Fold these 2 entries.
Entry 1:
Amino acid sequence: MVQPVSPRPILYGETLESLTERLAENGQPAYRAHQILDWVYKKRVADPAAMTSLPTRLRTWITETFNTQPARLVLTKTSSDVTGKLLLEPPDKALIETVVIRAPMDGVGAERSRKTICISTQVGCAYGCRFCASGLAGWKRDLAAGEIVAQLLHVCRQEDPTTPRAREELASFDNIVVMGMGEPLANYDNLLRALTIVNADWGLRFGARRITISTSGLAPQIRQLADESLGFRLAISLHGATDEVRSQIMPINRKYPLAELLPAIEAFSQKHGRMVTLEFILIADLNDTPEQARALAPIARQLHAHVNLIPYNTVEGLPWLRPTLQKQEAFAEILRRADVSTTLRREKGHDIAAACGQLRLQTEESRAAAKARQISASVGAAV
Ligand code: SAH
Ligand code: SF4
């Protein structure tokens, strides 16, 4: 596995336990770990020199032991009034995308919007789904746990650069969704470590129930996730209600066909007693037929799952198109009549999965990188 280039461990990838161990090896008492983590997650201080309650020798040790600047913010971009994007650059020049989405809440209107952060877990993706740009260029590397956590710290800093309070700032968000670039369950250990830090009392204190992990359907890892004590929410990128259709657009389906995937999802929801979401991108003349809707209904009912229908966002260079509004409605209607809890997203950008998928796609990596390099000289902020 290719690892991030920095030889020093990233401070934001340390758990209370691992940090305590490292401190002990250095002859330091355990309470110092709490103090350091308070500086990082409560006060949002990244520079060890500014951790003024710590003895100078300890501050020097932190600087020498850890990487406290895993990625620089090189670009922020607002593509519409509802979505914004941060582009982070680690030393190996890989680009990490993080999306912030402000979407009006269903039935409430514009006065109260739902704020969501969409984070990435890999650079590129190895799974090659035919409709998705993340898979187009293939997999480059996994993100380290500290690089996953750093995305959230950067968002907090962007939200309010004047108030140095990471936890409080993050608490103003409703959800974190792991739907950015990459397949989260293919980077399982780093993902779990990062989310443990995000959830922990000594970390960012963000509730597991407000964190959704989206997967293209890695059945064994779904079962593994079911056994974790933290109750994250699960979303499955289904996009096909039969093996025939799903295998056409998602190569993973050949490895884990529906007969293997669906029982794994069932095991997860039984364990956590919570509704999973089935994401279903509607692609014209591929999976938008009444037959697919009729095949999807019993699957959703059996799993007690909510179906999120997402009209496809066209991707340059890919042949797929969004179905007509009429076809989208007809598909949703079949599900509703079959008593399936269903949402059909109409406006692009207002759907989390679509927004994460789409923004990423709009960023042609080479162009963004060139622009980022120009801008990096003037922004250059690190967490
Ligand atoms: N690898 C994971 C998470 C990242 S993809 C997964 O596949 O679930 C996040 C979501 O964006 C998925 O539901 C994916 O299917 C969706 N997506 C990708 N390309 C899209 C597009 N062009 N239009 C709409 N949604 C898209
Ligand atoms: Fe990878 Fe998810 Fe895109 Fe498929 S949809 S290529 S699994 S990021």
Entry 2:
Amino acid sequence: MTEPRDPTQATEVHRVADPGQTRVASYLAHPNEVSRVLLLYSGGLDTSVMLRWIQDEYDAEVVALTVNLGQPGEDYDVVRDKALRIGAVEYHVVDAREEFAREYVTPAIMANADYGDGYPLFTALGRPLIARLAVEYARKSGCDTIAHGCTGKGNDQVRIESTIATLAPELKVIAPVRSWQMGRDEELAYANKHGIPVKGGSESAPYSIDDNLWGRSSEGRWIEDLSHAPDDDVFQLVTRPEAAPDEPQVVEVTFEGGVPVALDGERLDLVELLDRVAEIGMRHGVGIVDHIEDRVVGLKVRDIYEVPAAAIILKAHRELERLVSTIHQNQFKPGLDRKWAYLVYAGLWYEPLRDDLEAYIRHVNARVTGTIGLKLYKGNVRVVTRESPNAVYDAQLATFAESGGLFSQNASPGFIELWSLQSRMAWRVRQGAES
Ligand code: ARG
């Protein structure tokens, strides 16, 4: 095994030519500024090694914080015991599910949030909340520095550090994984040496997972091989469509002002509703996305997403929004939605443009009230019914059954003549130029 590196080599600030003068970024901590660290702790290998490594490298106290955003199957008592056993002086777990659903997922639904055709942003939405809570708990527990387990290749470092630097200029950041240059084997050896328990054994490298109540991503292993079709074992939430029930199921999602409020007629609070929708989607093989993604930092990566709730809710929302909006609104909003999604993806939650866009997005959504029925069948989600008091739809007008008296069909040719006027003239001019 390799020993931890010389501490003067081990941090980002020390790797610059003149550490006294230069920092890669103003918010990075010099080792001598670090005495009490708020660590964003998941209980996994990276952050467990980090918990111990920070105590040793910086001679600092560590306060560990875990944020519950509805990641399934997490036992926070186990995480707490582990943190305390590795030497945390305090441990906190925050149940932020309600706030996450209300303040982050809700605007994402209103914005039909999608990045790069398939990623509903669950991780990107969670990071600014996690970082905000890190700031809150760092201040409450007298920490000078926040530590996180993001690598130097991903989007999450951007999201977390942007948020911290925005909200708490007085706090510093360390990101040991970015600089310690330990690989998985070295981390395992380090864990071994310091008696840090390793969940699930150490034989094979696991997928890199991130999840919350809005979805789950897997990265790493064969996923990095673009020619490798998904192995079944990557799907831990969603039933494989081929194994899903032979009977379809119809679910009805009711929205009020753009917010989902009921499932099959039963009013539920948002966290519960998202949970139940996810469960139904999982059973029917819904929400599997095999995604190539352009990260903020330039890399392209492949993610396998399981997003059963988002696949259903977003489809229903988009349908209802289209129904209550005019053709002009429907053509305009996707551009704003795309910009909103990109700002969130790229870690700029606190960018004022997000607020500006949301003012419009929320205004449109005030009318997004009604119920959408969707049929789920072996991985497929299809809208089958729509109902809204605000629908810009009149069955009388649209019907083929009889000639309605509401406008004269005989007026249409006059419209067509003017509507096509410029196009016809331009066509003729071009025909002339060619001959
Ligand atoms: N590609 C997605 C994103 O950038 C998911 C990242 C998952 N994060 C992780 N640490 N595994 O938002």
